[in-house]
Amino acid sequence: MGASAVTSRSAAPTAPTPAVPGAAYRNLVVATIGFAITFWAWNLISPIATPLGEKLSLSSFQQSLMVAVPVLVGSLGRVPVGALTDRLGAKIMFPLVTALTMVPVLLLTVVKDSYAGLLVVGFFLGLGGTTFAIGVPLVNSWFPPARRGFAVGVFGAGMGGVALSGYFTPRIYKHGENLPFVVLAIGLAVMAVVEYFLLADRPDRVVPTTSLGKRLGDAGRLRVTWELAALYAIGFGGIVAFGVYLPTYLKTWYDLSPTDAGTRAAGFALVTVVFRPIGGWLSDRVHPAVVTSWALGVVGIMAVCQAFEPHLVPGGTVFLLVMAAGLGTSSGSVFAMVARVTPPPKVGSVTGIVGAMGGLGGFVPPLVMGAVYSAKSSYAIGFMLLSDLALAGCVYAFGRMRDADRARTAHEAA
Fold first, then answer.
1. Is the sign of the CA dihedral 37, 38, 42, 44 positive or negative?
2. For residues 334 and 327, what is the distance between their CA atoms, to the nearest angstrom?
3. Distance between CA 248 and CA 20 in Å, rounded?
4. Cβ neighbours of 124 (radius 10 Å)
5. For residue 377, what is the DSSP state?
6. The pLDDT value given to residue 10
7. Residue 406: what pLDDT?
8. Please, are residues 108 and 15 in contact by the beta-carbon 8 Å criterion?
9. pLDDT at 93
10. Do the Cβ atoms of 283 and 164 come closer than 8 Å?
11. Which residues have a Cβ under 8 Å from the Cβ of 107 and sit 6 or more positions away?
12. Under 8 Å between Cβ of 203 and 35
């Protein structure tokens, strides 16, 4: 009797993984491409900051501020945009934000010779960085839990728009100072039309009925929101910081030409793009907190190595690329945790807050690096600060975040 009961239990079929509809993959592809194009716009100033700075006789700190302003606005803007996506849906929000991003891109043709004008337009250019908070809840809603880590990781690869900007913007700029702005504006216009016709919200999407302020307040009261935000500020913030400042760092410290520096920075960004979905894929198989911990540990070690200011080849190149792999992996694994521990109706709001902190994590380092170099003629202190933060995140992710999903389950059961 006991044996047959054991046999019966062992033979019981496991619940099959729900089939992923074709619409899920269509939305994933379109959202990822749209994310990449708007991220290109978000990072449009950084690859040409050096020639703009030379033409306008800007200091290192002024250049850092010029490339950091869009990062700040794009980060903070994710909070209301994510909450609006919960209410209005990505079908409306994605093409709307993409189309609106065209305006500051075209205005750069008018203000490119004015530092004050670049700061003002850069403020509005930050709108391009908010599409992250639109795409995550869209993708999250279409894929079953067992596939969300990988799917959100693939969407996150759209941050490769930074690599596209780093590689193409300075090359197009050589053929005409207004040309990169015009080309990108056309790309945004085409993408807005494609998004309008091809994106679709899931039919059974839960639409919140409470006010925007209450939803943001509810998301802000979740402890896990701020824990994830801190980890994402290190991982994705590192990606953003290097995306906007690496060309300046390579030109200043290693005396590379703007084009060569932009190309190498694009290579760094490409590695982060490749490893972001890997971080999500690993998180579907291993707890995302464990993946995050190992990834940030690697970042911390590589930052220490780079702080000793090695030669670019081979040491600096190896250290920076391995660091890029760690940052990309951690940014994918952190958002796998968002999908795991956040109630579905709050994904957009939590994504907005977490994404905002990630972007803010990228706003401060370029300013710090510029200020440190101006004061000390060295970047070592900046890399040591990155190492301290990464290693702290490594310990916290492993020691605390492995229990975050169980804590949520226990809270909901109670």
1. positive
2. 11
3. 43
4. 18
5. S
6. 43
7. 52
8. no
9. 94
10. no
11. 121, 124
12. no
* Token couple for 384: 């040591």
Give the C-alpha separation, 11 to 304, whole Å.
Answer: 53
What is the per-residue pLDDT for 391?
92
Please state, in angstroms and rounded to a whole number, the distance separating the CA atoms of residues 366 and 61. Answer: 9
Q: How far apart are CA 27 and CA 263, in angstroms?
A: 30
Residue 204 is given by DSSP the state T
Cis-peptide, bond into residue 16, ω within 30° of zero: no
pLDDT at 294: 94
Contact 128, 41 (CB under 8 A): yes
pLDDT for position 72: 78
Token code pair at residue 394? 């490594």
pTM assigned to the model: 0.73
Of the candidates 151, 144, 133, the residue with the CA atom closest to the CA atom of residue 25: 151
For 71, counting Cβ atoms within 10 Å of its Cβ (0-12 exposed, 13-18 middle, 19+ buried), the class is buried
In 3-state terms the chain splits into helix, strand, coil percentages (rounded to 5) of 85, 0, 15
Residue 114 to residue 107: CA distance in whole angstroms: 12
* Alpha carbon distance 236, 327 (integer Å): 7
For 128, how many CA atoms within 13 A lie in the half-sphere containing its CB?
Answer: 36
Could you tell me how many residues make up the chain? 414
CA–CA separation, 115 vs 128, rounded Å?
20
Query: Tokens for 405?
Result: 């999903």
The conformation of residue 43, written as its DSSP 8-state character, comes to T
Phi-psi region of 339 (alpha: psi -120 to 50; beta: other; left: phi over 0): alpha
- The set of residues, in sequence order, having a beta carbon less than 8 Å from that of 240 and lying 6+ positions away, is 71, 162, 358, 359, 361, 362, 363
DSSP per position, 244-270: HHHHHHHHHHH---HHHHHHHHHHHHH
pLDDT for position 14: 47
Within 13 Å and on the Cβ side, how many CA atoms surround 57? 0
With a cut of 70, which residues of the chain have pLDDT below it? 1-18, 212, 339, 344-345, 347-348, 363, 404-414
Residue 116, token pair as written in the block: 């004050």
The pLDDT value recorded for residue 274 is: 85
